[in-house]
Specification:
- The chain has 276 residues and is α+β, with helices and mostly antiparallel strands.
- Helix content is 25%, strand content 24%.
- Helix 1 (3-18) packs across helix 6 (224-231).
- A six-stranded mixed beta sheet has the order 1-2-8-7-6-5.
- The protein has helices at 3-18, 65-76, 106-109, 122-132, 185-202, 224-231; strands at residues 20-21, 39-50, 113-115, 118-120, 140-142, 158-166, 169-180, 206-220, 240-243, 258-261.
- Strand 3 (113-115) and strand 4 (118-120) form a beta hairpin.
- It is built from six helices and ten strands.
- It is globular.
Length: 276
């Protein structure tokens, strides 16, 4: 069973057995029929993945990893907030009349800031520091811009990345304010693990640890049967993650620059209602 499966099971069991239910409390999310979407949650989950050992993709159900990486590139490489620039439809419900999700996600990463070395956006600053200042303890991004929150169609969930070089290894921490365990957990893990691999390669580094910090880690009430069914399954070994090793420019990666060899996963027979 993959490490991602192990951690997923442990986190879900903790939520189901020890979590707090917000049933009866006023909540923002709703189901399509207008019913409040309640959750069982736990606070302050920290999961660690050693990327040098295996790629953290789940096998208890299929993770559509290529679409996940495509969205990651939409945010970090294209720095876009326009859904027409994205190959999947995961953001369609959050798009406004102008076809964007407002001043959120990629928009924030694309804003240029003034540094003594020149004007750079957040992504280019990370790339610069990994090559020129690898011992820095200031290599991070943050898209939770309070000044622009009122113009974001959804406040960022995965909002901050911190990078740290130890020896020749690149480590990373993803901070996430909120995580839907069924629909989004491994999707985000795959995205930011892949990002760490990309940044390490173009910076001449090896991958180290990826740490996922989740503030409000929850399972929606209507997702509980599906999660419980997944907990009964025995996962497969993690697949072998491949990346085009000839790429030395972050902006040349595409979703086709990656492959997952021998990716085995269980079928998933549940319709997943989406809370919005």
């Amino acid at each position: 069973m993959s490490r991602a499966d192990d951690l997923y099971k442990a986190t879900c069991r903790k939520i189901l057995e020890e979590g707090y239910s917000d049933e009866g409390l006023p909540v923002r999310p709703k189901w399509a029929d207008g019913t409040p979407a309640h959750t069982i949650k736990t606070f302050g989950v920290v999961n660690r993945y050693n990327l040098a050992e295996e790629f953290p993709i789940m096998t208890l159900r299929r993770t559509y990893w290529k679409s996940a990486i495509d969205e990651l590139l939409w945010i970090w490489q294209k720095k876009s907030n326009r859904i027409a620039d994205l190959g999947s439809h995961v953001w369609d419900e959050w798009a406004g009349e102008d076809g964007t999700i407002g001043k959120a996600y990629g928009y924030q990463l694309g804003i240029k800031h003034h540094y003594k070395e020149g004007d750079m956006d957040q992504v280019d600053r990370v790339l610069y520091d990994l090559k020129h200042n690898p011992t820095s303890r200031r290599i991070l991004t943050n898209i939770y811009n309070f000044e622009d929150l009122h113009e974001m169609n959804l406040y960022p969930c995965a909002y901050s990345m911190t990078f740290n070089v130890t020896g020749n290894k690149l480590n990373a921490i993803l901070n996430q304010r909120s995580q839907d365990m069924l629909t989004a957990n491994n999707w985000n893990v795959v995205q930011y693990a892949a990002l760490t691999h990309m940044l390490a390669q173009v910076s001449g580094l090896e991958v180290g640890e990826f740490i996922h910090v989740i503030a409000d880690c929850h399972i929606y009430d209507r997702h509980i049967p599906a999660v419980k069914a997944m907990l009964e399954k025995e996962g497969f070994d993690a697949p072998t993650f491949r990346m085009d090793t000839s790429i030395d420019d972050f902006y040349k990666f595409t979703k086709n620059s990656f492959s997952m060899e021998n990716y085995k996963y269980h079928d998933f027979d549940f319709e997943i209602p989406m809370a919005i």
